[in-house]
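Good morning,

Attaching, inline, the backbone tokens for the sequence recovery test we're adding to the shared suite. The designed sequence is right after.
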């Protein structure tokens, strides 16, 4: 079914209202002509969604035309997990990375969960297997195992409680055990140690050796240089950054918390040390704020595209459908349910 000229015009106008604010993406300028180019695709995807009882969940790091063109929910890992848990859809297209889609399948097992690109991994999730974690647990039998949500279903199945960047400090502080085996982010583990010390909470944090290939690249020198150039600058960073970067920042938090901080803060400029997709969202949703360069691209998140979302709705290949062994899924669900019990309610 092809769209009428009137429907295409209206869709291009709808897209333009959001996308014209996105300036951080040097690869593409958003204007009426570029919105007209993608309007047939967004119309087709939104029609396919209605016909199939499908929804699109999109992480804030994916391309803005996905977020503002076809996403039914957009946000950070915690928010998207909640959306998956509450979803009544027959099909979930997860525009993000594979561990997020696996989490959606764990929480919403009756839905068909598909990914636009099976190659959308994550350097953290790919840094440790379930088998490696089992061996590590053998070395620390008295530790409670806390996994960051950026981990595979097999790692979650071996863990006691899952956390996200938005609730990691509160949940670990609430655990009765002193000794924590935290996987897979070594840099976040350092930030946990610092924050718990600041809160006066006594915990021993043992970690595995993963890092985020995007956030580990930011440096304190980059912050110092930006502060010198832009007086009054506020520096906002993700806890996957190094401890030195976190120490030099004005705010450290999940992508959802970073957005909230920017909305609530008056400053002439902001430096966002995270993936560039988040800056795109802020340019759309807080157009009165000014962002200076610094963000980086996650090559995995950028594998998502409107074309691949359309194709996976029309005819998913077997590798695009997320399947999990049922016993493993149930074990992995336990640690995520524990997160929902322990997470702060705000
Ligand atoms: P958030 O949950 O803060 O969105 O983080 C996800 C992620 O992959 C950050 O690199
Ligand atoms: Fe993984 Fe880093 Fe990409 Fe987030 S930004 S998905 S942690 S590689």
């Amino acid at each position: 079914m092809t769209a009428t000229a009137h429907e295409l015009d209206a869709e291009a106008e709808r897209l333009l209202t959001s996308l014209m604010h996105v300036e951080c993406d040097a690869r593409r300028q958003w204007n009426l002509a570029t919105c007209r180019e993608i309007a047939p695709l967004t119309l087709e995807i939104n029609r396919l969604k209605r016909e199939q009882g499908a929804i699109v969940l999109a992480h804030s790091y994916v391309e803005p035309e996905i977020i503002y063109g076809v996403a039914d929910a957009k946000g950070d890992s915690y928010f998207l997990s909640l959306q998956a848990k509450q979803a009544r859809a027959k099909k979930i297209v997860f525009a993000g990375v594979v561990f997020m889609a696996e989490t959606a399948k764990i929480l919403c097992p009756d839905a068909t969960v598909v990914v636009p690109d099976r190659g959308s991994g994550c350097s953290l999730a790919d840094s440790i297997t379930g088998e490696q974690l089992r061996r590590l647990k053998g070395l620390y039998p008295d530790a409670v195992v806390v996994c960051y949500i950026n981990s595979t279903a097999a790692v979650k199945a071996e863990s006691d409680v899952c956390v996200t960047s938005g609730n990691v400090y509160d949940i670990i502080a609430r655990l009765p055990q002193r000794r924590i085996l935290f996987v897979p982010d070594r840099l976040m583990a350092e930030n946990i140690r610092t924050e718990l010390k600041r809160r006066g909470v006594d915990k021993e944090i043992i970690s595995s050796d993963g890092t985020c290939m995007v956030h580990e690249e930011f440096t304190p020198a980059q912050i110092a240089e930006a502060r010198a150039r832009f007086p009054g600058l506020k520096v906002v960073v993700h806890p996957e950054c190094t401890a030195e970067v976190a120490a030099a920042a004005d705010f450290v938090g999940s992508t959802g918390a970073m957005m909230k901080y920017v909305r609530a803060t008056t400053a002439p400029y902001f430096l966002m040390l995270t993936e560039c997709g988040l800056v795109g969202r802020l340019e759309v949703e807080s157009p009165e704020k000014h962002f200076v360069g610094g963000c980086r691209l996650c090559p995995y998140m950028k594998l998502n595209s409107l074309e691949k979302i359309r194709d996976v709705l029309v005819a998913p290949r077997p590798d695009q459908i997320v399947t999990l062994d049922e016993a493993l899924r149930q074990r992995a669900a336990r640690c995520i349910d524990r997160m929902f019990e322990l997470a702060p309610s705000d």
